Amino acid sequence: MALIKADGSVSYQGAVVDTSEHYWMDGMLSEYALVWDMEKHQYESVSIGYYGADGHDFIGTRAVIDVSTEVARDIIRTLKRDAYKDFCRSVIKKKNRIEAGITARVVRGRKIPKGTELDVFWVGERPTYTGYGTEMIAGCKDKNGNKVWIKAEYLKNITPLKSPKAVERKKYMKWYIQKNAKGLVLQVAKGV
Question: Is the pTM of this model over 0.85?
């Protein structure tokens, strides 16, 4: 079973992963079902119940949690793809980050010539001149040992960083899947 409407029709058969409730301040209660859309390959939240303060259900749909093996495996495949993309994004972000201990090249600005290589020893925030928000500042030393303070956005990281190993990627992907898949989905996908 899956979502059973008041007229007896069934939808999302084998694709209902979880249910949840939300209590509103006026005493109303909303019920939702988390379902998997096989065409879009993503979770969707479907409203299945809306109860008045007197307990009357205005929608009249019942949900029975039911995950088929095909749906569970599609969820896991999609989560693996998303985990790999997320891992790649985090590696690129790490390689481009300006932080203490790296070597950076000046790519913008007018006080320090472009192309100058600096060793970054400190990175922090300071208020902007307008008073709205903050900006990242890097404390650096040039090849002569002179201290230079420059906006972090004017620098490009040129330190060669090691790419993560396959073991680290697999560990991240396993964590990502366990975090985003419901326990029932993992059990059904394994055939337990």
Answer: no
